[in-house]
Write a structure and sequence with these properties.
The protein has 13 helices and ten strands. The chain is α/β, with parallel strands linked by helices and 357 residues long. It binds fructose -6-phosphate.
Length: 357
């Protein structure tokens, strides 16, 4: 039920802090240890390479998950678009583990890969919001997202839940492998939940930005580097699917290799800067597009902000910034769609779960 909300999407955006807290509770024992299926723990310990398979928004969460698993658990990770995997099946390692990320657990493209790798005898873990779903039943192990039903076609709370669970999984594996770690995921996720609340309380500001930058435009670009780039891809997808604005997420460094040719007087360019090591470079990219007439909007993290930034997000652990920077992006897409009279919860040509290949 939507309750007092005009749309499920807005309700689901607002639920994200609660989902973070739910995940913290579900993945923690009474004495504050991580609580994870011991078979999942063993499978993570046993593998020599992880293959993440997903589509759309779940694929974007997978890109962030790769960073967690590689940095914290020291296991190489490849992230693949499910529908592409069969054509370009990579050379598999000796002990691969497949992780399927899927809100619905019913995505046919992902299932096709699952069927194939099970035939080959490889282990599979599904991370899903629907534990009884096809991908969950047919995999060896399941991790639940605990996000509650996601009704709006555009995925929001499932994306942040996927990233949170991937962070917990990475830390759990690091602990199981006795690796050095100075990152307490539960403490950091609690900080994220509070930061999300601060952001969902700033809807008016974001609505104004959406009106000023996106209500009339034909296209928009999102630029970022490192993990900010992954959030840019997700931000562009959100905007495309519900507001029908042609949007693209780009790696800042790639602009000069072609995309900058598209910048005209008034083209909206939204830059995300939450990482200290890329702050300087991404701001350089902003100057390059502004010099060509772009209408820039910089979203930065507290501590890295400049006076001209459109919006500053609260500070969280640098690994977890996607959980927070995506919230204004979801809201931007939502309000852009409203200003353009689009059907937010049921965008044209899209289905909530894509059960055909
Ligand atoms: C975007 C969106 C889709 C899904 C994709 C995968 O907002 O909802 O891109 O993320 O169809 O769906 P799941 O996660 O159910 O496998």
């Amino acid at each position: 039920e939507k309750g007092t909300y005009p749309h499920f999407m807005l309700k689901e955006i607002d639920e994200q802090p609660f989902v973070m807290r739910k995940i913290i509770n579900e993945y923690q024992t009474e004495d504050s240890e991580l609580k994870l299926d011991k078979n999942v723990r063993q499978a993570m310990k046993d593998c020599d390479r992880i293959y993440i398979i997903a589509a759309g928004t779940s694929y974007h969460a997978g890109l962030v998950g790769k960073a967690f698993i590689e940095k914290l658990a020291n296991i190489p990770v490849e992230v693949h678009i499910a529908s592409e995997f069969s054509y370009n099946m990579p050379l598999l390692s000796v002990k691969p583990l497949f992780i399927f990320i899927s809100q619905s657990g019913e995505t046919a493209d992902s299932r096709a890969v699952l069927v194939r790798i099970k035939e080959m005898g490889h282990p599979a873990l599904t991370i899903t919001n629907v534990p009884g779903s096809t991908l969950s039943r047919e995999a060896d192990y399941t991790l639940n997202l605990y996000a509650g039903p996601e009704i709006a076609v555009a995925s929001t709370k499932a994306y942040t839940a996927q990233i949170a669970v991937l962070a917990i999984l990475a830390v759990d594996t690091a602990k199981a492998k006795c690796l050095e770690l100075d990152f307490d995921p539960m403490q950091e996720l609690a900080i994220v939940a509070n930061a999300m609340e601060v952001l969902t309380d700033q809807k008016e500001t974001i609505e104004e930005l959406a009106r000023d930058y996106l209500s009339k435009t034909r296209n928009a670009f999102f630029i970022g580097r490192s993990t900010d780039y992954y959030v840019c891809m997700e931000a562009a997808l959100k905007l495309k699917e519900i507001s029908y604005i042609q949007a693209e997420g780009f790696a800042g460094g790639e602009l000069k290799h072609g995309t900058i040719a598209l910048i005209e007087e008034g083209t909206p360019v939204i830059a995300i800067s939450t990482q200290e090591n890329v702050n300087y470079s991404i701001r350089g990219n902003v100057q390059e597009v502004v010099a060509r007439g772009a209408n820039d909007m910089v979203i930065s993290m507290k501590g890295l902000e400049q006076d001209t930034d459109a919006f500053v997000i609260p500070q969280v652990h640098e690994l977890l910034t996607p959980l927070v920077s995506v919230v204004p992006m979801q809201l931007l897409a939502y309000y852009a769609a409203l200003h353009r009279d689009c059907d937010v919860d049921k965008p044209r040509n899209l289905a909530k779960s894509v059960t055909v290949e």
